[in-house]
């Protein structure tokens, strides 16, 4: 059985049905009681109540688990508490001599960009590496869904600021497929980075979004400050040699907004 944290998040919502369609039994961690039908497929599905921040319910959550896919993150709080949360999860996982395979989703560039959220993701990686548990850490480039959310919020203003940097986004559904593959395989330590199929300037992604949504806005590129800004402009968050993603930004926009043209 596989335990999935962050099952109701951007990645978890597509990861759980990907697993159950493969016949995998899934337990999903939630801070509050949930009910309802499973996501379909031949694998069983159940919710379990547990709080990574408080450390409650984790022993029950990991009981009988073979693999933990840790996809939970305090994104609204820029990762605040994430490193402590993963430590609590791992400690619960190890009690009683258990040795589940831990699969962790991370971000390309967390070891190269001195940006707050990235530093926390790297700290979580290091906690997993030092745990003594078999593990696989998968770094991916940013996801279409997050880029879409950012642009949707930014486009509420007639002037849309966009960071002057290249991006290589990936469909979260393809990241979920990769995690499902890793969950069913032997631990790798660090898996090969995974990136989207195209590398474009952020303004190009933004222009395609505006065309797809029919919004007329003024794009204003800006330079991110400091060392982190220089690293982003240099593309430290991209992986041009790893373009495993198949879905393009134009195809994603067409599916979401009925767009005929894209980046």
Automatic annotation (TrEMBL):
<dbReference type="Pfam" id="PF13460">
    <property type="entry name" value="NAD_binding_10"/>
</dbReference>
<dbReference type="InterPro" id="IPR051207">
    <property type="entry name" value="ComplexI_NDUFA9_subunit"/>
</dbReference>
<feature type="domain" description="NAD(P)-binding">
    <location>
        <begin position="6"/>
        <end position="140"/>
    </location>
</feature>
<dbReference type="InterPro" id="IPR036291">
    <property type="entry name" value="NAD(P)-bd_dom_sf"/>
</dbReference>
<protein>
    <submittedName>
        <fullName>SDR family oxidoreductase</fullName>
    </submittedName>
</protein>
<dbReference type="InterPro" id="IPR016040">
    <property type="entry name" value="NAD(P)-bd_dom"/>
</dbReference>
């Amino acid at each position: 059985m596989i335990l999935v944290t962050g099952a109701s998040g951007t990645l978890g919502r597509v990861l759980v049905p990907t697993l159950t369609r493969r016949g995998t039994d899934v337990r999903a961690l939630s801070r509050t009681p949930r009910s309802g039908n499973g996501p379909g497929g031949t694998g069983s599905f159940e919710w379990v109540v547990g709080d990574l921040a408080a450390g409650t319910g984790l022993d029950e959550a990991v009981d009988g688990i073979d693999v933990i896919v840790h996809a939970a993150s305090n994104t609204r709080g820029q990762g605040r508490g994430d490193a402590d949360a993963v430590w609590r999860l791992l400690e619960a996982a190890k009690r009683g001599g258990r040795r589940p395979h831990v699969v962790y989703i991370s971000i390309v560039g967390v070891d190269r960009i001195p940006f707050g959220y990235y530093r926390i993701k790297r700290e979580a990686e290091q906690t997993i590496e030092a745990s003594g548990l078999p593990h696989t850490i998968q770094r991916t480039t940013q996801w279409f869904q997050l880029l879409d959310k950012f642009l949707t919020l930014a486009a509420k203003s007639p002037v849309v600021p966009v960071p002057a940097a290249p991006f290589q986004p990936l469909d979260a559904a393809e990241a979920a497929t990769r995690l499902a593959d890793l969950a069913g395989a032997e631990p790798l330590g660090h898996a090969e980075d995974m990136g989207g199929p195209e590398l474009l300037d952020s303004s190009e992604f933004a222009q395609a979004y505006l065309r797809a949504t029919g919004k007329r806005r003024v794009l204003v590129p800006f330079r991110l400050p400091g060392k982190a800004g220089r690293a982003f402009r240099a593309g430290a968050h991209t992986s041009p040699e790893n373009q495993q993603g198949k879905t393009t930004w134009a195809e994603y926009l067409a599916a979401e907004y009925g767009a005929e043209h894209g980046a």
